[in-house]
Design goal:
This protein is of the alpha/beta class. 39% of the residues lie in helices and 12% in strands. Strand 2, helix 4 and strand 3 form a beta-alpha-beta unit. The chain is globular.
Length: 492
């Protein structure tokens, strides 16, 4: 049996049935990492000592019946912007290269209470700023389907690790598509939850009004199981909301039959790759065969989603990153001779180019004389976009779009073209602007064999609807079961 190939729920079942021990599950993950991660660079930090100690404790609790979580005993990997007590949390930056938090993020406490074992911290774009995982100060992560290509970002390490069986399941964060786009590029399932349904306490902030933690997994069922564990109101997070309790059984049994799905016409016009367009439209036909009602609709205001996202995200980033000043914690330049030089040199040396670019853009749109022209206007446009999407949900249960206009880029293509990098969010940013949930589901491959993702967008708190539709689609197709060539023994 190839343990690493199992889904998270399959593994948990075998652990409960005593076919596999928790320690064997951890062994299988580290063996896969040792075998492939020199090439893929999915991980920044591994925590073997802590993982094996935790595995033994969890095994005892499972055997005694103290833990009955559906994912008890399953190893989980975590994006490196989510705080883990005593384990480095670097945000893939020089600024926090040696930072060890003194507390766990709320989601980490929930994982541990459910009997899951944290394996390591995953690579990402520096402070989540990028869409290729090339802005990382640690390393550039490779796409498992073709290592000449990027895995997407900013949660590229999370998606690549799941695709390469270096993780059974993972956590990422999504500010403008950072869970869904790498999910699409790497051929895995990725859920961006409704804003406020998963605590952001312990998540290093990029853009506080847009950021959301979510699961990346091999199947919709795995996503549903992990979302059930991490979701819920948190008294330590003021943006956390009370909402109807999510139940795994409701989601996987909900189904797509009878649901009305709207295809957003503007996202299938100029600029979309033909292979992507064909695969996503074919997926819509499959959903129709499964009982959904499909209809095309128009929402012209979506053309403003990327500039709106860029202005708001950059403004909030410049504010959130102001805390890294070389004084309190993080990198402090050894060459500074006075207080002003500490500020200037520490930030100049500690931040990478893309982070600096977004700080400067954020400061510009918030500056005197430009606040109303840019930031305030972006906030008004955000409200209009949200209203337009909510109006669509008066008619449709689900909105269907591609995740990205293209499949995974070659390394170097986007990093040299910042505007092109921002346009990677053209189909995903609308979700964060509106605060609604969305899921990326594998739905095909392009002519080069790179994965293509289908995006399903739902009303607030409609994770049950999205995951139910995704489960039906995955029962009827096998795109999510396909594996990169190297898992059979050869990396391209």
């Amino acid at each position: 049996m190839n343990i690493a190939r199992l889904t998270a729920l399959e593994l948990a079942s075998k652990i409960r049935e005593k076919e596999i021990s928790v320690r064997q599950a951890v062994d299988a993950t580290y063996e896969q990492i040792e075998k492939y991660d020199d090439k893929l660079k999915c991980y920044i930090t591994l925590c073997k000592d802590e993982a094996y100690k935790q595995a033994d404790e969890v095994q005892k609790k499972i055997d005694s019946g103290q833990i009955v979580s559906p994912l008890a005993g399953v190893p989980v990997s975590v994006k490196d912007n989510i705080c883990t007590k005593g384990i480095k949390t670097t945000c893939a930056s020089k600024m926090l290269e040696n930072y060890k938090p003194v507390y766990n993020a709320t989601v980490i406490d929930k994982l541990e209470n459910a009997g899951m074992i944290v394996i390591g911290k995953l690579n990402m774009d520096e402070f989540s700023m990028g869409s290729t995982t090339e802005t990382s100060a640690h390393a550039i992560t490779s796409n498992p389907w073709n290592t000449d290509h990027v895995p997407g970002g900013s949660s590229g390490g999370s998606a690549a690790a799941v695709a390469a069986d270096e993780a059974f399941i993972a956590l990422g964060s999504d500010t403008g598509g950072s869970i869904r786009q790498p999910g699409s590029f790497c051929g895995v399932t990725a859920l961006k939850p409704t804003y406020g349904t998963v605590s952001r306490r312990g998540l290093a902030a990029f853009a506080s009004s847009l950021d959301q933690i979510g699961p990346i997994s091999k199947t919709c069922e795995d996503c549903a199981a992990l979302y059930e564990i991490i979701s819920g109101k948190d008294k330590y997070d003021s943006t956390s909301m009370d909402f109807p309790e999510f139940k795994f059984s409701d989601a996987v049994n909900n189904g797509v039959k009878g649901k009305k799905i709207g295809i957003l016409k503007e996202f299938f016009s100029d600029g979309i790759n033909n292979d992507v367009k064909s695969a996503v439209l074919a997926a819509s036909k499959k959903l129709e065969e499964l009982g959904a009602e499909i209809e095309e609709f128009s929402m012209p205001i979506v053309k403003y989603s990327v500039p709106t996202y860029c202005i708001i995200a950059s403004a909030e980033a410049s504010s959130n990153l102001g805390r890294y000043d070389g004084i309190k914690y993080g990198y402090s330049s050894p060459d500074a001779e006075d207080l002003m030089q500490i500020y200037i040199k520490s930030r100049s040396e500690g931040f990478g180019l893309e982070v600096k670019r977004r700080i400067m853009l954020g400061n510009f749109v918030l500056s005197s004389g430009r606040y109303d022209a840019y930031y305030n206007k972006a906030l008004k446009t955000k409200n209009l976009i949200q209203k337009a999407l909510f109006d669509a949900f008066e008619k449709y249960d689900i909105v269907l779009t591609p995740v990205s206009p293209e499949t995974a880029h070659k390394k170097g293509e986007s990093i040299s073209n910042p505007l092109g990098m921002y346009l990677d969010n053209i189909y995903t940013a609308i979700v964060n602007i509106a605060g609604v949930p969305a899921i990326s589901i594998p739905c095909g491959f392009d002519s080069s064999g790179l994965p293509i993702g289908l995006q399903l967008i739902g009303k607030p708190f409609a994770e049950t609807t999205l995951l139910g539709a995704g489960c039906d689609f995955q029962k009827a197709t096998d795109y999510h079961k396909q594996k990169p060539a190297f898992t059979g023994g050869a990396i391209k």
